[in-house]
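Bench notes, afternoon.
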Amino acid sequence: MSRAAQFLIAGLLTVSCPFLLRAQGSDCDLALTHAESEFSAGHFYSIPSILGRCPEQGLSRENTVRAYLLLCQAYLILDNPIAADDSYLKLLKVDPEYVATEDKDPIDVVYLSKKFTATPIFTPHFRIGLNTSLYRSIYSVSTEPYGLQSQNTLKLGFQIGAGLDWNIDDNFSVGAEMNFSTRGYKRTRTDVLSAGDRSEVTSSQNWIDVPLYLKYSYDKGKIRPFGYAGIALNYLISADNLMVFTDLKATGSQLLAEGPSEAVTYQRNQLNRSFILGGGIKYKWGKDFLYVDLRYMGGLSNMANENMIYYQDPAKGNPAQLGNPNFYMSGNITKYRYASDLFRLDNVSLSFGFIRPIYDPRKVKKARTKSLSRKIEREERGKTK
């Protein structure tokens, strides 16, 4: 076969395939309509042969659900429970969140549906957003023999991370995450040596957080609220302070002490704990979800290393005296007139995320059919009266 003929056949197939698929879909739609008519006429045995392979390959998602429901009803009437179970399981694989209800489905299908679930066992999710930190002083520390006025200023950071929920049931889950975040704060002290003096520190930090929480999620509708509470381990990767000291002289002149940011991780307790409270809204997007999450993380640990807040980093001292900070006063004391309080750091974050449920259609070990059985019995007794 010549190369020109090969190109011609390939072109014809490319052009004709969409029309063939459309024709197949049209035929399957007609087959579904015919099967529904036969079902209404009481011709149940013919339903599987009329539908053929259409539910697997020739129908839209909505019509595939209709086809499997029809097969399920037919097999139940024909007393073929194995085939009915198989049809309902295939339905859930097409639409994992399908819920059979008494107002739109036959009671025997509703009864059968209680034996199945598609609730994901695990649900991964991903997040990104902004945060701000709240400085909470535990015990005030000063370079002067008197108290100083302090003011805190909010500073924006960002966070990115991922998590996994283990779903206990349709509503409750246990979640764990790992997040990276940047945080910080600005703290200003006034009237340090004399009226008008200012000591400013702007802290920048990098963190790894590992939250663990119990979550409740509403499980119906396009928009689904959720809330959670738990604890978190917080590891401080690094902390840097940018410090400025403004000395206002009686003559009105100013002396300004400033320099590059300094690493102060050694002055911090790197492993910390916090409690978390949060909630938000999920928006169903196909089989996945988009969500908005607002979280408050309250620090439970003192972040200041009490033994090091006055001293220079031992790693930068005289080699003969490394590890002994008592020989070197920190520059934040001598140059900037600043000593860190004992403090906790809270955090408020707003995140936007994506959820990809890993659906697992399956038969449950214990069907929840008792209440429905009692209702069926009441209805049957009512009919016999």
